[in-house]
Design brief:
Elements lengths: L1 H20 L8 H20 L14 H25 L8 H28 L7 E6 L3 H10 L5 E8 L8 E2 L2 E5 L3 H8 L3 E4 L6 H12 L4 E4 L17 E2 L2 H5 L8 H8 L3 E5 L4 H12 L4 E6 L2 H12 L6 E5 L5 H11 L3 E4 L6 H6 L1 H21 L4 E5 L10 H23 L4 E6 L2 E3 L5 H10 L4 E3 L5 E2 L1 E3 H14 L5 E4 L5 E2 H11 L4 E2 L8 E5 L19 E3 L5 E4 L6 E2 L1 H13 L3 H12 L8 E2 L3
Parallel strand pairs: 1-2, 1-5, 2-4, 5-6, 8-9, 8-11, 9-10, 11-12, 12-13, 13-18, 14-17, 15-21, 20-21, 24-25
Antiparallel strand pairs: 3-4, 6-7, 16-19, 18-23, 22-23
Amino acid sequence: MISLDTGALLFAIWASYAIRLSVWTPAITSERLFLAAIAPLVAIPVFIRMGLYRSVIRYLPEAAIWTILKAMLIATMSWVIIIFLMEMAGQGIVPRSVPFFYFVLGTLLIGGMRFAAKWVLMSGTGLRRDEEPVFIYGAGPTAAQLARALKGHGNRYVMGLIDDDPSNQGRDIGGYRVFPSGDLPSLIDRYGIKEIILSMSAIPMAQRQAVLERVTELGVKVRSLPDISDLVDGRYIVSQIREIEIDELLGRSFVPADNELLDRALTGKVVMVTGAGGSIGSELCRLIIRRKPEKLILFEASEYALYRIEQELLTVGELPIVPVLGSVTDAMTVDRAIRSHGAQVLYHAAAHKHVPLVEANVLEGIRNNVFGTLTVATVAAERKVESFVLISSDKAVRPTNVMGATKRWAELIVRQMATEAHAKSEGQVFCAVRFGNVIGSNGSVVPLFKEQIAKGGPVTITDPDMTRYFMAIPEAAELIVQAGALSAGGDVFLLDMGEPVRIGDLAKNMIRLAGFQVRDSKNPDSGIAIEVIGKRPGEKLFEELFYDRSNAKQTHHPKIMRADSAAIARYDMSAWLRDLEQAILAEDEEQARKLLFALITADDLPEQTVAHG
């Protein structure tokens, strides 16, 4: 390529003189021969420094024209300086328009040869023009198999493998060169890489997370491949390439589910799920149906959500699925569903959970979350349901919003039901499971951020320093069921949510996972911007899972803790509920809000009875 560029530059000089002097054969002098020889000697090092010889012609990005323009401009200016010095020494005069013609013709020739060669290579050899160069991160057998599978399949072309192991770097594996990971930024620029595929599922989570953090900062799309043991046949390896999920970047350690606990809770049982069409409820249903219950009752207020989850579950197997359309505040409908089908296990996931919406609709939030829980728990107690599990929230701890306060009331209602059940000694178990945000749930920030990124931004956050706990929906569902199986009654179980995540960091990571740069002061002209809109009513800067961490006792499951019931305040709920119901019936929002928060102000005071008044 260097020899072609040298010839092109010599031709550009001859043509520049020919155009300027309007003759086909300009006079050849020693000065002109010297300048002609100097031009490529000056230009070629500039071209090398600007990376014109690093790119593979077939995958030369369109943006390379700007690099060619800059390289040719620097080369021309350097040549002009030499011309000026020669003129100062009295060695002859070069017409002023010759350097201009040289720049224009040189740019056209240097750029034209490259893009013409690219066109010939991509059309003349039968390669599709939509192929994009990619790197595979990893140098194991799976990576080599993936590289072979991608050859001639889809629109990706593997440029090489990336690996952190020095013993692999510089080698060829399966016919592909292995590059060090430290060279990734320059390799991406050199080959115009738009995507990196990770083939490293077998490595430890901490190392995988470090690689993810490093790669997502490079402004390319990142995808992943499951472990080779998860693939049925190598022919299908290409279809297994998937998007990196945000929970992988959070680096949560995974603990396999205890199958004994899951079977104890679900297998052969008649199970009912309220809020069955919601994010948590639907995932619970998917888990339950795989554990072979005797029957699954889907209780849901939304007709569309109920239809959708029923249709999905019907494709899984032949187990009886009973869809029940109704509200948890309707005691007759709840009673009919439990009584007619003989429900033995009940997961109460139905709730209004969107903080700003519940804050704007206080009475409905209380009616559904508090009295809906009271209705379902009361009927469950009357109909001798063996196990009742309330799905609670970290917002129930020292709540500052209506949604969190209603969840705390729901926990206290379930605790009272557990106390009454224990006094009857009939073996009924009532408990609550408290955890933070689940990734991808309806109304959470993750789907919102994805939608905003898809539209090109900006991504709106309330406060970059706000922190939240996050957990994947399938993991949450498994832990909920296992916690229910561990309950002795009256428990509040706390799921280990790992470390809290800054919302600002979450937004940046999601933008980078999508293959974009974050637009900020360092990168003001491209990428997706993050816009701070301020906290909404009722929002806390950070959430908590514990009233008192010292009162949380470890169970035999490493991800499930139990709040010490001896350290929890006792509540006389009946009078409080009567007054709250009167406020709801009178549609007195101010009084309802006042009662809602008055009860839970004593949550920090252990070993006491909180009376009404």
